[in-house]
What we know:
With about 70 residues, the chain is mainly alpha-helical. It has helices at about 25-40, 50-65; strands spanning about 5, 15. About 45% of the residues lie in helices and about 5% in strands.
Amino acid sequence: MTRLITCPTCQKNGPWLEGPHGMFCSDRCQMVDLGKWLGEEHRIASPLTVEDLEELADTDASDQAEG
């Protein structure tokens, strides 16, 4: 079963994780996102904590159990 996700840049839905651009639908969307990180439009508000990583691991485990 193919999992559809939303491209973070253009908001199109599709099976992007199966393609060459990871979670993005195209090379263009991937480069737009990189440009936003480099231009500091995107930023991480605070350093990651152990609790953040544990929460991420729990979310990944529940996603894998469902799929």
